[in-house]
Request: fold
Amino acid sequence: MPYSETHLFSDREEFKPEIIAGKGVGEQRLTLHRKNCRLYYMYLPTETREMVYVENFFETHWLEKARFGRRNVPWPSVEFVRSGSLLVESPDLPHPQHVPAGSLLWIPPVRETLLRPGPEGFCCKVSLTLGGILLPDWQAKSGFDQYRVLPQIDRKRFELLVEDFRRLSEQQSEEALHRNGLTTWKLLQFLQNPFPLREVPERFRKSLEKLRQNLARPVTLEELAKEACCSRIHLARAFRNYFGETPHRMLRNLRMRLAANLLLNNPDLSIKEIAAQVGYDNALTFSAEFKRDHGESPRNFRNRQNWN
Reply:
């Protein structure tokens, strides 16, 4: 099946039970009572080395009798309700959770889950399936190892991300794979702060871009504050308000993501060379920071992932 192919399951109402099960993919049970359902596949070669990625996504209109159950599925999913509403049930939840229009549901992997339309009798939604070797670590650190209902998110920002994934599904290239990873990181950052943001002033957008473009060299808070014409305290506060992290924390996270990518995709680079490319003069300091972030040394991380 071509990875970039877009499949139109139905442009009319249909009602069909279906079971998807297999080793390593868990079990999914569907009662398909829906119309206008589209599935978009992303370009993902067998040996995908992106840290995180979206594998595929649906845009669908569920009718009243639609049901979707999953158990032992190893990947999480994001469900955004465009109209109508969604009910989610699980043995891990004290009672059914209602996900109204404009809200987002995070479904963690493995958990037994049942989804169905809410009291309106229908649900128009977007469903994204995520993967990647760094995803479990991100879930644990950000609190997304549990079910999360995010009410009334910034719909415009989310729909722009969906549109980016839709465009990427039309491409079959290594560049598309790389941009899938970058866009998925943006999605994960969005999930941590999904509510409408105030307009980010141009000077702080420039500060953020400078961090992203200078991962290999020291960028000080004093330097950023001077260029943004503000104090260091004001800059740190602005970053927390607009981007959810301080400049120091954001720079460190960006460097660790790049380091993990280099470790997997550039086997000829030594640990010392990778440390230099992400702004560390000392390989031992880099290794200690990487282990603090990933729970293992860069060498063990590379060997384990290559072994898998």
